[in-house]
Write a structure and sequence with these properties.
This protein has eight helices and seven strands. With 374 residues, it is of the alpha+beta class. It folds into two domains: 173 residues, Heat Shock Protein 90 (2-Layer Sandwich); 131 residues, no CATH class. A hairpin with a 4-residue loop joins β4 and β5. The longest helix has 68 residues. The relative contact order is 0.07.
Length: 374
């Protein structure tokens, strides 16, 4: 039975699409700025002498580039602003080639402008006695730009290194927390198994066994995430969910049950991915427990769809459906856990039972902006 999905009017869809395009453009712009800010001509060079040589060559290249641009400008506007192009040349050389590149560029660019551009051309002499003051002021201004550019470059580098260190520390803490969480789940499952063996009543044993199974699935979800993704703030959903489906299909379903998966490649934040994995674990565990209890064969389908309007996970089967009493209880522990995982993922849980099976759906749709944000 198909689920009723939430739809938005055309105007809202247009606004959502515009916001997504804007976010995408902003993200690309920030990534471009980040790459430019971190560009360093000598970063991959080993050895101090080699680094210095590369930096000096970069400063020379910047100065030569200025010579060419200035020559073209002089064809149309001769002798205008003799030292105007020295400043951007020094700035670029220093930001991307360190202090040495800036010094080389300043020396060559300033000397060339004085000798070739400042009248009289091809001479260090002064046509106007006041030009001496102009040369001194421009030389000092170029050095000030050089010093400020180097200070800015070092500040950006230190800030970037600090952010990278903090991010790496957070990732290690997250990985350690997930490892401890997995171990705690395993410990709780072991304690439940011990309690189950101590009780003789079948009802108590069944309840404890079911609780132990659920806790083990939580531990397995964290293990799968660690093995498939390692450390990182983003998770590729396709390999992560496929690993969960394959593991549960092999461990929980008989050979007569076919598990079909259609998972789109999509990347989500780690916390969101964990919640989706736990939801999928619970949904498949419910299928294994209830769907085909009285049937010889069946099909379970797992679909995960990505953008542009959010994401959606659907777990459906052609099993017993409403004909099995416990399966139809929407207030049971399984349903409550799935609701909790949906809330953790920031999505909505829907369960549909029919005569031809069951469909569990976890959906997260882009939120329409408020009128004052449109």
């Amino acid at each position: 039975m198909p689920l009723e999905t939430k739809t938005f009017p055309a105007s809202t869809k247009y606004v959502l699409a515009s916001r997504r395009r804007n976010r995408s453009a902003d993200g690309k712009g920030l990534r471009s700025v980040h790459r430019i800010a971190q560009f360093d001509v000598s970063r991959r060079i080993r050895g101090a002498k080699s680094k210095h040589a590369v930096q000096a060559l970069f400063g020379l290249a910047c100065a030569v580039a200025m010579f060419g641009v200035r020559t073209v400008v002089d064809i149309f506007i001769p002798h205008i602003g003799p030292f105007a192009m020295v400043y951007p040349t020094v700035l670029i050389a220093t930001l991307f080639g360190h202090l040495l590149a800036g010094l080389v560029a300043w020396t060559l660019a300033f000397g060339w402008a004085w000798f070739m551009v400042l009248p009289p051309a091809w001479s260090f002499a002064f046509k106007d006695p006041a030009d001496l003051g102009r040369v001194i002021i421009n030389a000092a201004s170029g050095l000030i730009v050089l010093v400020l550019a180097e200070a800015f470059r070092r500040a950006v580098r230190q800030a970037h290194d600090q952010l990278a260190t903090d991010a790496e520390r957070r990732l290690h803490l997250i990985a350690d927390l997930e490892h401890r969480t997995k171990n705690n789940f395993a410990l709780v499952a072991g304690m439940l198994d011990i309690q189950r063996r101590r009780h003789q009543e079948p009802a108590v044993q069944a309840a404890l066994a079911d609780a132990s199974r659920r806790v083990k699935t939580f531990a397995d979800a964290y293990s799968t995430l660690a093995l498939a993704q390692g450390e990182g703030s983003a998770v590729a959903m396709k390999p992560y969910l496929e690993e969960i489906v394959d593991r549960l299909a092999a461990a929980s379903f008989s050979a007569s049950v076919t598990v079909v998966r259609r998972i789109e490649p999509y990347t989500l934040p780690r916390e969101e991915a964990v919640a989706i994995g736990l939801y999928l674990n619970e949904a498949l565990a419910n299928c294994a427990k209830y769907a085909f209890a009285d049937l010889d064969q069946g099909v379970v389908e797992v679909d995960f769809e990505g953008p542009p309007d959010g994401w959606r996970l659907i777990v459906s089967d052609n099993g017993c459906g409403v004909s099995l009493g416990p399966r139809s209880s929407v207030g049971g522990l399984g349903s409550q856990l799935m609701q909790a995982f949906a809330h953790q993922a920031g999505g909505r849980h829907d369960l549909q039972l029919s005569e031809t099976g069951c469909q569990a759906q976890l959906t997260k749709t882009a939120v329409a902006p408020r009128s004052d944000e449109a």
